[in-house]
Amino acid sequence: VINREGDFRMSYVGEFSDSTILTKLAADDLTVEEEDERVETLFRDLSRDPSFTQIVYIGNAVFEVTYDARGNIFFDKTLTFVRTSDRIVTLAYVEKTKEITMRGGTVPINFRDRLLALGYDMNGELRLTTDAEVIDHNATEVTGDDEQKTYLWVIQSMNDPPPKLVIAADDPPA
Predict the structure, then answer these.
(1) Farthest-apart Cα atoms in the chain, separation
(2) Which of 74, 119, 130, 132 is the most exposed place for a label (fewest CB within 10 A)?
(3) How far is CA 96 from CA 4, 64, 92, in A?
């Protein structure tokens, strides 16, 4: 959710995979001790972000997480879930153009085939609700009325185009 005043809430409950652990597991190049070490490092890294309220390693490079971030994009400027090196969704305010952008991350093309061969893919739904003026998007579906709209992206594969949405921002509050 993001409103025209820039207040946002980004929530996620689900699973995500760590590409470093996944790559090493796929190459059979990771001992149990090294996996434990990498998991602990990632856990410490993610725990620094207070928006993560649950982080559980369930095995095979997969983490179960609960994430809930709130703020104001005019003041925060950028919010990246999960983190800049493993970007799933980024929300950003571009002061020069007076636009708020939401962009989904992508898996590099040269890595996709390996992940798909291992049985890993990306799927789910992403929703963004706003009362602001949306000037561009590639949502699968849009519902709502003149007061507020919900944009829905149904992601069936990592080969799908990444979600994007652009909002014409009002001037930020003083």
Answers:
(1) 56
(2) 119
(3) 17, 37, 12
CA distance 29 to 161: 32
Which are the contacts of 97, defined by CB distance < 8 A and separation ≥ 6? none
Q: Let me know the angle formed at the C-alpha of 111 by 105 and 113, rounded to the nearest 5 degrees.
A: 115
> Residue 110's Cα: distance from chain center in Å?
21
- Could you tell me whether strands 7-17 and 62-72 are parallel, antiparallel, or unpaired per DSSP bridges? antiparallel
* pLDDT tens, N- to C-terminus, the chain (174 residues): 999 999 999 999 988 888 778 878 777 788 889 999 999 999 999 999 999 999 999 988 889 999 999 999 999 999 988 865 667 899 999 999 999 999 998 887 877 887 787 777 888 899 999 999 999 999 999 999 999 999 999 999 988 999 999 999 877 766
The length of the chain in residues reads 174
9 beta partners: 70
Tokens read off for 170: 């009002």
Phi first, then psi, for residue 34 (nearest 5°) are -65, -40
Please report, in angstroms and rounded to a whole number, the separation of the first and last CA atoms in the chain.
Answer: 22
